[in-house]
Amino acid sequence: MKKIFAIAALLVFAAGSVNAGTLSYVDNPNDSYSIMLDGGATVFDTISVSITGNDGATLEAQDGGFDGFAPRPAGAPFTYINQFLGAQVAQGGKGLTVVGAENLPAGLKFDATLLGGTINTGGAMFLANIQLPSPKVATATVQLIGGGQVVETLSTLIPVPEPATLALGGMGLIGMIGLARRRNG
User: Fold this and answer.
1) Residues paired with 146 in a beta bridge
2) Which of 148, 141, 154 shows the shortest CA–CA distance to 40?
3) What separation, in Å, do the N-terminal and C-terminal C-alpha atoms of the chain show?
4) Are the beta carbons of 72 and 129 closer than 8 angstroms?
5) Within-domain flag for 3
6) pTM for this structure?
């Protein structure tokens, strides 16, 4: 009976995760990261973005997102909001209305909405670029909002520690648990 419940739970999880949105980043040169959103099958009309440094890290090289009069490409080593989000579709943009934009060392925040419609990311949509002092870490959180309600919250750690670092940390934690059991047993 336990196996049946485990299989059912796995199927429900797998079916739910196929349509779910994903938040990821692309590792660029100069400790710069491009934040990408794939909305999946989630129906939403607003994207609320918040990116903050962890453990006192600040975002570096705040910029308006333009290189002269042209928007910077994804991966350019500066911290900026993708200016194509607010550009008209006829100009190659997403046609969104970007409000509440903050690009400060303490964090990058903004909301982007499609007035009178729903947003389709059509795969990975470039949201913003951040530059961090090495080896610092930041957290990006995105809320997908539909009809005034949060329908999905996505979060990612930037950069994700290397697998070897995670393995060493895990082994250390296991060793500490074993030592505590040995002392108490």
Assistant:
1) 149
2) 154
3) 34
4) yes
5) no
6) 0.77
CATH number at residue 115: 2.60.40
Decide if 6 is inside a domain. no
Each residue's pLDDT expressed in tens, for the chain with a length of 185 residues: 444 434 434 334 444 445 789 999 999 988 899 999 999 999 999 999 999 999 889 999 999 888 888 888 888 999 999 999 999 999 889 999 999 999 999 999 999 999 999 999 989 999 999 999 888 899 999 999 999 999 999 999 998 655 544 444 555 556 556 545 555 65
- Domains: count for the chain: 1
> How many CB atoms are located within 10 Å of the residue 92 CB?
9
Q: Where are the beta strands (DSSP E) in 93-173?
A: 97-104, 107-113, 125-131, 138-146, 149-158
Q: Give a yes or no: residue 2 inside a domain.
A: no
CA distances to 30, 95, 132 from 99, in Å: 29, 13, 24
Distance CA 169, CA 102 (A): 35
